[in-house]
Amino acid sequence: MSEENQAQNILNIESLINNASNRLDTLTREAQEQKSMIDALLENNAEYQEIEKEAQKQAKLKTIARQKALNVPEAKSTLEKLKDAQIQLKEIKTALSDYLAQYVSISGTNQIEGPDGVLRQIIYSAKLVKSK
């Protein structure tokens, strides 16, 4: 591909990115406005408000019951084991992501065969965030 074609492709992709980003911002704003309208309708509905208050009371009772149930020694140790497992999962996922990036860089392919013989594709998820 010539440098001119590559430059034009980059400009086209930048335009697509900017258009999609602008559309995403517009739709997000519109959705927030619609949500505000729904919230206002619910606030003005007496039946809904009455049931909402009762639901909040029940939620508080549920929270209290949950805290009591999880305050026993066996629940505490199980919660600790769960927290440890979640930390390990996060660390392993991060390491796996790094290994996969290295594999793609070195091998030049985005596929890898697992120990079970299944061919897996390595994919990346990109998102657009504002620079600081």
Quick tags:
132 residues, mainly alpha, 2 domains, two-stranded antiparallel ribbon, 3 helices, 76% helix
Report on the structure:
- The chain folds into 2 domains: 69 residues, no CATH class; 55 residues.
- A two-stranded antiparallel sheet has the order 1-2.
- The longest helix is centred in the N-terminal third of the chain and has 41 residues.
- A hairpin with a 5-residue loop joins strand 1 and strand 2.
- By secondary structure, it is mainly alpha-helical.
- The model has no long low-confidence stretch (mean pLDDT 92).
- The chain contains 3 helices and 2 strands; from the N terminus they run αααββ.
Give the count of helical stretches.
3
Shape designation = flat
Low-pLDDT residue spans: none
Structural class: mainly alpha
Oligomer: single chain
Along the chain, the helix and strand elements come as HHHEE
Count of strand segments: 2
What's the number of domains?
Answer: 2
Task: Give the overall average pLDDT.
Answer: 92
- What is the terminal-to-terminal distance? 34 Å
Largest sheet: 2 strands, antiparallel
State which percent range the strand residues make up. Answer: under 5%
- Helix content, binned percent: over 70%
Query: Strand order across the biggest sheet?
Result: 1-2
